[in-house]
Amino acid sequence: IGPFWVTASRTKLAVFTIPMQVDNFRLIVSHEEANKDFWFRLRTPYIVFSWPLWLTLLAVMAMNAVAHWVVERGSVRYPVERKITLPNALVEATLGMTTGAPVTEPVSPASKIMVMGYSLFILLVLSSYTANLASTLVSEAGHTFTVSDFDSALKMGLHTCVLGAVTTTFQQLFPRLDRNTVEVSDTPEALQGMDDGKCQVAIVAERLFDDSRRLIVPDLEIPGARRRLLKAAARGAAS
Description:
The protein is of the alpha/beta class. It has helices at residues 8-11, 38-43, 51-72, 86-99, 109-140, 150-156, 167-173, 187-196, 206-216; strands at residues 25-29, 31-33, 143-145, 160-163, 181-184, 201-205, 228-231.
């Protein structure tokens, strides 16, 4: 006699002893390769910051340029040929942000203080940009998953492969699952159903999923075999 899951319907037919083991049920979802075309690569450096933040950075650069021009335009320590103008101040503020360090040569004490503050601002912006860009490249270059949790699968009405022994239990726990259930006999059939398009997600026991993966998916890089294992909302509900 093999092991049986203690479900609500089975407890009405027989008295079970204390369970010898408990299975954790998981949600299996498929994924698609991220689109890495030319436009994706072109826009990636600019999606690191939101458009309001980009506009804020431009406004800060413009304010710094105007302030530097106002403070230094009357400085007698500048040579005549290097008298600061507003266009030059705007160019220097832009170069300071894009090169990572202020290119302005401050003369007056007020200008020196502004340059020090602007250099710290540049340091914070570039540090944040570098960190966010690295995170964006890693996430965007990965995979796009069908759903992120079981509630999303229910709301989207995705067809779900469920093992026949626990189908009734899950349908009682999640009434919305009733009309989208695809009953299967075992875990390999559930995974095959996802590959064949019969269901978009599957609910299987974690232990059975690991056994089936070793049995039919020895190479995790073959098409259709890559999966993402998520905690199901009804973890152990049918244990």
